[in-house]
């Protein structure tokens, strides 16, 4: 096929890769190196990095293995968003550049940096271990090896999507809570815990759930959905997080978790008034003693600035509450039925 000069220009151009650099053994602070190379349409960011490493600067460090979106090794931030370098097209990134023609490449966030674009995955692996994210067989030992442990298609469909996770840590890098609290369980770990907890071959459900409702666990998630938006395998991570929370309330009640009490108080307000009674929410979630001890200074500041929420008697019900309550009741019954069907 004859290539016209216009197609030729559209199909190949110089692109600058602005790459984050830090070798903690020699550098006192991070910096960026610019590498400008000719790139053809169809080239991935990983192939561009390989070109730079092979032809311009062998010291640029990043992790890579399958080069096909399977192993999860090449997670990095490209133009500010965590994704896989081996499945990201340079051409798709060009319109997203802050500075025309310059693609910014940085390491994943929320994990310790080892060198350049390589982060330490040990904290994530450590959390997987802490939350016991493996199947501990519920089959009695004498029966092991004598019969198969079959999983029905219906059961498998409950965690099918979760098994697509390749542990690339892109969701971990984008998690808003992890940025503030590195102890937080993290979305990838919650996804894996959910996958294990709905597996009927597993015997650790109760132990795992007891750990998940502790501090830094499932109730700390703010529902920002960043993890789900970022997931390189389009896994509905939030369904897993909601699934663990529903399971926790069903199996453990409200006794040991401020998060569960918060969810209950939230639902109760919505059912009764169609809106939140914010002034009493902290008391109902954390108790009077905790609220007075921890939130009193903030409450005083809010009073001084006249930013306090209205007291309960002044919170009027939303309009159309009769119909809303009917719909709310139907919705909660539907969710309960759904939950029962899942747990059969
Ligand atoms: S939804 Fe929860 S787990 Fe996901 S990124 Fe936000 S805080 Fe993190
Ligand atoms: S859930 Fe998605 S983004 Fe997170 S580690 Fe797994 S594949 Fe990567
Ligand atoms: S190198 Fe394996 S997912 Fe990119």
UniProtKB/TrEMBL annotation:
Species of provenance: Chlorobium luteolum (strain DSM 273 / BCRC 81028 / 2530) (Pelodictyon luteolum)
GO molecular function term, any single one: 4 iron, 4 sulfur cluster binding
Protein name listed in UniProt: Succinate dehydrogenase subunit B
EC number: 1.3.5.1
Taxonomic placement: Bacteria, Pseudomonadati, Chlorobiota, Chlorobiia, Chlorobiales
Cofactor section: [3Fe-4S] cluster; [4Fe-4S] cluster; [2Fe-2S] cluster
EC category: oxidoreductase
Family: Belongs to the succinate dehydrogenase/fumarate reductase iron-sulfur protein family.
Residues in 2Fe-2S ferredoxin-type domain copies: 20-108
Pathway stated in the Swiss-Prot or TrEMBL entry: Carbohydrate metabolism; tricarboxylic acid cycle; fumarate from succinate (bacterial route): step 1/1
Gene Ontology biological process terms from the UniProt entry: respiratory electron transport chain; tricarboxylic acid cycle
Keyword 4Fe-4S: yes
PROSITE patterns assigned: 2FE2S_FER_1 (PS00197), 2FE2S_FER_2 (PS51085)
Keyword line: 2Fe-2S, 4Fe-4S, Iron, Iron-sulfur, Metal-binding, Oxidoreductase
